[in-house]
Amino acid sequence: MKKYLLILAALIAVATGFWLGRTLQPATPMAGSEQSHAERDVLYWVAPMDPDYRRDQPGKSPMGMDLIPVYAGARENQPGVVSIDPRIVNNLAVRTVVAEYGALSRRIKTVGYVAYDEDTVQHVHTRVEGWIEHLATRASGDPVTRGQLLFELYSPTLVNAQEEYLTALRSNNAVLSKASRGRLAALGVTPSEIDALAKERTVLRQVRVTASTDGVVAKLGVREGMYVTPATEIMSVASLDKVWVIAEVFARQAGWVHEGQRAIVTLESAPSTRLEARVDYVYPELDPTTRTLKVRMRFDNKSETLRPNMFTRVEIEAEGVGDVVHVPRNALIRGGAADRVVVALGDGKFRSQPVTAGIESGERIEIREGLARGDRVVTSAQFLIDSESNIATALQRMDGGSEAPSADGARKPEALP
């Protein structure tokens, strides 16, 4: 019995000594803490009542309180900060870049297609009804030259008009002859054909229709033997010496483009070929199907390198914006409620940072809020780090932690999406 009492007394003595040691332990002197802080670098200053308000130098908070410094190493305990072993960082091929500050040009990258220059397109119609008895041009895309036979038309109306003209000539009635000649011209008979009729005095059963310009058959709407009327579009002839390139610009970039801007066009068939042009016309309305704005450029095409309906890539140099913070576009993680980037804090530590994105310019994107110049952002493996940061933030909040800080006084959402 005495043995058990001795053991119990010893345990009580040990517990009492441990409690007294914890209770009576002296606090760390403030001077030592200040000296320790002085030996470390100050990263930035924050407001005492608002950790989201951050500045690069001492000053006053919006509430009039002195900003307090945040020292190197203090960020390790912030919510959402994840630490990765340097060897794993290398294995993940994590790459970082510095957020730049400066002018950002608005560079619109889009797609387009080659189209006929509508100023050169000519539609071929007849002025009378009749039948196509001989079709000399049989397929779309066939080349034609000025004066080349397109088709021969049989029309009872033209036959009757020729007979009336010959009757007027035989009657030696100048007024009637002039009126009959004018009727033939109104029906589409050329002056040379009328002169040949007056000379040979023979009615032509078939009237020849020839091309009035050089080009190619852009559209063929008839076949041999078909009955046609003045409303029938027999064919369209267009020139390839000049073509259009129609680019389609997203609605959010519609306000960036205007006539006269420089544009670069590249072809899928010749990626190394860069064709320069100017924006010739901006269409007044958006396409109702694609919700894009069409932009037109003109090209001389003597070599016929550009062919209608050919796919192209178009880059339009629009006017830039002033000095802004911008990062590579692939550094931005798009989210439903907020966009994010992964900030590299150094020594293998990273944090997912909510940001407000601005305009896109080629491979760069503006960051309006959430980043400061000089911050390093991750451009590779950022999705994996972002997911780990979000999990760490959620766990710390469950334990009663505070929200992660953001840059330059920008208020951020309570939770990361």
Task: Please tell me about this protein's structure.
With 417 residues, the protein is α+β, with helices and mostly antiparallel strands. It folds into 4 domains: 2-71, no CATH class; 76-102 and 322-398, conserved putative lor/sdh protein from methanococcus maripaludis s2 fold, CATH 2.40.420.20; 108-117 and 240-321, Efflux pump adaptor protein, beta barrel domain (Elongation Factor Tu (Ef-tu), domain 3, Beta Barrel); 122-238, Beta Barrel (OB fold (Dihydrolipoamide Acetyltransferase, E2P)), CATH 2.40.50. The protein has helices at residues 2-23, 30-39, 86-91, 156-170, 174-186, 191-200, 382-398; strands at 42-47, 50-55, 68-71, 81-83, 96-98, 100-116, 122-124, 130-135, 143-144, 149-154, 206-210, 215-220, 227-228, 235-238, 242-250, 262-267, 274-286, 292-300, 311-328, 339-346, 349-361, 364-369, 376-378. A hairpin with a 5-residue loop joins β17 and β18. α4 (156-170) packs antiparallel against α5. It starts with a helix and ends in a 19-residue tail after the last helix.
